[in-house]
Amino acid sequence: MYNVFIVDDEPVIRFGLKASVDWDAEGLKLVGDYPNGEEALSAMEEYHPDILITDIKMPVMDGITLMKKAKSKFPNLKVILVSSYNDFDFVREGLKLGAIDYVLKPTLEPKDFVQLIRKTVEKIQQEESIEEQLGEITETRLAEERRQMENSIKRAILSGQQLESGDFPDWLKGKSLIVYMELNHLSQIEEEFGGLFKSFILDEIQTQFYKNQSNRVCFPIGDSQMLFLLGDERHGLQIVEELKMEIEQETKIDCSFSYMPGTNLDSIKESYLLLEEACGEKFFDEKRQIFQVEPSKTTIKSNTMPSLNMEDSDDLTELFEERTGLWDSGLYSEEAIKNDACHMLTNFYMNQVSINILVERCRGMESAETLSELISQFRQDIIDFDDLILENKKKVSTDNELVDKALDYIHKHYTEELTLQRVADHIHISRNYFSIIFKRFKVKNFIDYVIELRVNKARELLKETSLKVYEVAEKSGFRDVKYFSKVFKKLTGLSPVDYRTESLNKRMD
After folding, report:
1. Cα 117 from Cα 108, distance rounded (Å)
2. Where is average pLDDT lowest: 15-19, 129-133, 279-283?
């Protein structure tokens, strides 16, 4: 809605101008009518004017002066002059200054005045459209330049390709603050929202970052990591703390960071590796989430654990509790500890549990983000495997039958709130055991299977019905239409609307 100001020293003229137009019906807001330019100009401080209808000759401040002052503050302001027959010289001056048109008081006709108002509104809308198009062109060009810059830096990190400094803005050619970020609690994110959700979070972080930091660079460097180049920033820790707070408020996801001030682009690969290693310290110090790279203080941990003799041990729990003392000593690397844990688990259960299940649980331990999480997971694995061995001894149904029964339930209830626990309860087995056998048979985790099932149903509905997109989302089991659209495009390559259009075109051909 555009704001309109009427200014004339004659009350009867002001009344006539106000009464000539149904302002609401024209999509306009009549802010007020004023007897002179000075009062009108003062009111403009509070309300941004879009259309000014002003008499030329008035006491205190005339219309031409008002027009000059108002347009100096609001360059896109559209002005309609109100004049008498003997004001033509002033009208000509007003038109030169950019007035849209003028009306004569003696011959003012409501119908003609309404048409002039509509012409003025159309002029505003045309200019807004041009500005929007120019803005989109500029934004597209800037986005393409950013993408090229991001890809060049990413190639330098991943392949060691030499960077050409001429391809970068001046602020990046000198020393820069580089920040590395990792999403925390990845297993929980994947189990609750599916594997695709991580990329949505990174996209959201990048989009929000560029809204506030258009002259900085950030990009995903893995499926759950991002790199930020923030220029020659002096207060590294403060900036990273602010960045962390903004990201976590926006995404509701915990993140860990490492940072390195004063880094040059020509050593970007080496800097990245140091940042990645520094952030990895959260494995041993889970209470910290921000780490500064300090090469001179780096302690090299051993990648080899002392040999482990399991031949005489029949109690894995006791052996494991002894081994955690070594893990917690600070002498061994994260990789060495995880390898040690997998070695213990596989050797103890090699002849009792399927090799596929053992491999899967070892992968789970490899993805543990902290030492306490690894220890907790190892203890849970012992419980799960002992339960699994017991289940195998007494179970009546085969794993195939259990999975078939679960799939039948999933396909009947996929539009409802489905969880791993709910389906496991339905087939009367533990949640962990169901997770193991489901992934073994379907080669994907439970939530990713459900998401794919829902998207396939959405594809059918888009092809065969005229339901609106939000109705398709609801009938496919998605509660959030925005999330549905993101998932659908990620899995099909097309938005729901484009998918429907393409399907219709293929049918017509």
Report:
1. 13
2. 129-133
